[in-house]
Amino acid sequence: MGSVEIIPNVYQLTIRGVNITVIAEEELTLIDTGFRGSSPRVINFIHSLGRSVREISLILITHHHPDHIGSLVEFRKFAPQAEVAIHEADLSLDSQLLLPKVIRTVLHFPLFSALEPLLNPKLDEVTLKLKGGEVLRPLGTLKVIHTPGHTPGSISLFSPQRKLLIVGDTINSRYRNLRLPPKSVSSSLSQAINSIAALAQLDFEILCCGHGKPLTQDAKAKVQKLIKEHHP
Ligand SMILES: [Zn+2]
């Protein structure tokens, strides 16, 4: 597992290629939960800070894909009082539609259909349905921005004070190059382009994507370049 302190008290952990953000303030906030089975390593990390998993008061899910929501049930077991927030558009849809097409196809075979709950955990755990526009407590002000495209209910999280933008899979980062989210696992690329264009207007210096390292150099310029490539 890799871990990096993005800014003081904000850590990005990478487990099986998926980023999980831990914000360690008076209370702990988790952004995304990783694949199923990721909780022990996150909990070890929380212990290394001298903190306890029971201090998690908020779990924010950037979107309903199994690599981001997979360990939610595990965390709720250890921190049952934690608020769990996801955008309502990722709740109300037929959850199968949010899975990549290739996986949906495989799940039609009886042999594999038993895997469905593993890949696509139920969202009974959600206590806070987001619409976008909410201002949350972490980092003084953490704004929820609805950025549909990768999934209908994808959200990005923006801290204006810390100039930090966390986008989940709304933007794909590979070797510090930014791209649109992959078409095969996204609900609408044209929506994604509009969402990214809105993000490009924000005043941020650090960009964190759902996969890949945080971008601390020229992050805003790179998002603007991505939009220029795809937005007429
Ligand atoms: Zn995704």
Name a few traits of the molecule:
14 strands, 27% helix, alpha/beta, Metallo-beta-lactamase, Chain A, 5-stranded mixed beta sheet, 26% strand, 232 residues, 7-stranded mixed beta sheet, binds zinc ion, globular
Overview of the structural elements:
The protein is an alpha/beta fold and 232 residues long. The chain has a single domain, classed as 4-Layer Sandwich (Metallo-beta-lactamase, Chain A). Helices cover 27% and strands 26% of the residues. It has 9 helices and 14 strands. Helix 8 packs antiparallel against helix 9. It starts with a strand and ends with a helix. Bound molecules: zinc ion.
Instruction: Give me the secondary-structure category.
Output: alpha/beta
**Count of the domains:** 1
CATH topological fold name: Metallo-beta-lactamase, Chain A
Rg on CA atoms, Å:
17 Å
Low-confidence stretches: none
Taken in chain order, the helices and strands follow as EEEEHEHHEHHHHEEEEEEEHEH
CATH superfamily: Ribonuclease Z/Hydroxyacylglutathione hydrolase-like
**Number of helical segments with 4 or more residues:** 9
> How much strand content do the residues show?
25-35%
The distinct ligands, each listed once, are:
zinc ion
- Just give the CATH class: Alpha Beta
Neighbour order of strands in the largest sheet: 1-2-3-4-5-6-7
